[in-house]
Design goal:
Length: 149
Amino acid sequence: GGSYKESALLNTICQLIFHSLPAYMMDSMAYLMGKKPVMVRVVEKMHKAQKAIEYFATNEWKWSNDNVEKLNKELTEVDRRTFNFDLSDLNWPDFIAVYVKGTRQFVFKEDLSTLDEARKHTDKMFWVEKCLQIVLFIVFGKLFAWLFC
């Protein structure tokens, strides 16, 4: 489902089975019940975000900050205040929260006023997806048992 696979083909198959197929099924059910279908759009946004970070998430990266540490030791106190690049003082949870909001606003062009509503909707859709995956697993299991047992 939500993790990268070593094989691009396997990754695509998993996206279809665990993301796109349930989204189309949910949207079909929503349409038949007279509600607005939204899951396909949500999955497409998710795949867009996943594609944007795929290269960085599927490769190994080795970083060295030896030069930064050396430079930091050589700075005067005035330079340290002027060119503050000491990340030990950075509040990472706050930074990530601002980063995510910025991504939502500027990359996905979404209004921040709907953030709480979007969180609730995402939580709800997470459980809807899990329930649908269980149903599909049971259906495919019964189909497999019927065909091969």
